[in-house]
Each structure stands twice: as structure tokens, then as C-alpha cells.
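G.,

No rush on this.
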Amino acid sequence: MKTKEVHIRISDKRFRKLKNYATLKEKTVTQIIEDYIDRLPNTETDDSSATPLPLNPTD
């Protein structure tokens, strides 16, 4: 399986909350994040006429 790296900035408080939750569930932080991503609806479509989202959400 090919993997990608994602770097995010979160507060110390949120990181501790995430780390504690992962420990409680006996999982890694990566596994917790992947579990939540897997719950997202599939937004892939074959419709090439869809309008792409802007790269910068403030645009």
C-alpha cells in the first residue's frame, strides 16, 4: 500500500486529547485519524463536469 504523509498544526490541548483517546482505545494516533477518515462519505464521482473546489478556501 502506498502511503502519504500529512502534517497538521493543532493545539497542545487537542493533541493531548487525541493521544489520550488513542491510548484509551489501544490504537495509534494514525489509526484513530484513519478510522475517522474512513467514516467520511465517498465523494468521488465520474462526473468530470463538476466544478473543482478552490485550492484556498478563502478565495
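When you get to it, here's the other one too:
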Amino acid sequence: MPWLGGGGNSFFGQGAIESSSRTTAGAFLAQGATEYLVLLAVVLIVALVSVALLGFFPGMASDSQITQSQMYWRSASPISIVESGARAAASNGNTYLYLRVRNVGTYPIRITGIVGADGLKATQFWGSGCGAPITNVNISDYFYLGPGEEKYFAWAFGFGTTCDWEITATTGSTTTRDIGGASSVCQNSTASPGVLDYKSLGFEYIQYVEGQQITKRQGGKDWIVKCLPPA
């Protein structure tokens, strides 16, 4: 019965082919798994490097974070920050603010302090011009705002301001005109002036409602602004 032998050889040959196919498929699977692990390792390394860079440059903030912060404060109530800026002074490295605020509420208010993180607040500014004496001046003496009224702090910013009412941003708070608690301040560097970043900023104020004086606090939100080159 020779056909049986021939048939048997055929079956054995088919088995060898199937075995070879399984071996090839296994090799492809192993190669795919290896490539996946390599790609995963690359992704993890990139992620770790990104985290390390963010930790190394704590003053970095994305454009989207800055935009969101500015949008929030423009729509805040009753005290809205409608314009802002910051820069380091080339002479001493201090960070000075340009801060234009508006009363968008329906009642008059009197701002008494600007509060940074950890409750570190400024209650005064350094006055010069626009009727303020050249000395420390209480914010509450000059920042009474009726509904829709605007006032500002400024120092040599070139925004068309005429009053030189100086207030500074610091990581700590050493004087009554420092807004303390900033996570980063402006750098005395033309090439890389950095950002002024408050994880928490707010205002203390008195609101005048139908003959009543109500003391309030607004804010506790992020405020971030790109620093101008030092001047």
C-alpha cells in the first residue's frame, strides 16, 4: 500500500511547515513586544526629563496659564485687574508692579490691602506725584473707587501712566509695601526677565452698601504676568 507511505510523508511535511510558521509568528510577537518596551522606555524618559525641567525652572509658566490668569482677573468682581505688568529695577533688582484695577461692582469700595500667598500683604505704597507725598502712603487713603472707576499702581512702565506709586512683589514680605508670597519674581536680566507668579493673590477692601461699611476679602486665585526687561 505505497499510497499510505506517500500520504504519511505528506502529513509529516505539512506538520513541519506548520511548526515553522508557528516559530516565525512567535519571533514576530517577540520582536513586537521588544519594540513596545523600547518605546515605553523612551516615553517614560521624556516624561521624567520634562518633570525634572519643570522642577528646575520653577519660574516657568506656559502662555496658556498666563492667558487664563489674565482672563480670570479681567472678569473678577468687584475688583477687576484690567491691565498689569511687572519688571525688575536694574538699580536694585526689586520687582515693581503695574497694576490697574477697576471697581466693576454696583457699590463704592475702598481697597485696604493686596494679599499674596500665605497672607503676606501690602497695605501701603511709596507715593510720588498725583497728589501723594514722597513717602509710604496707606493704600486705603488713595484707593477709594466708585462703580466703574479705575486707579493704578505704577513704576516707570511706559504705559502712559503719570503717577509714580510704587508697590513691590517679593517671595517674602519685609515692608508694608511688599506683596509677599510670590512663587517667582522678575529677574534683573534683559535676555531672560522671567515671570511674576502668584499662586494666590487677592484684595482686602471695604464695601459701602446703603450707609453700611462691610469689610471683605476677594481672590485667592493665580495671577501670572510676563516680566518686561529691567529698567
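The longest helix spans residues 2-56. The chain has two domains: 1-56, 63-228.

Enjoy the weekend,
O.
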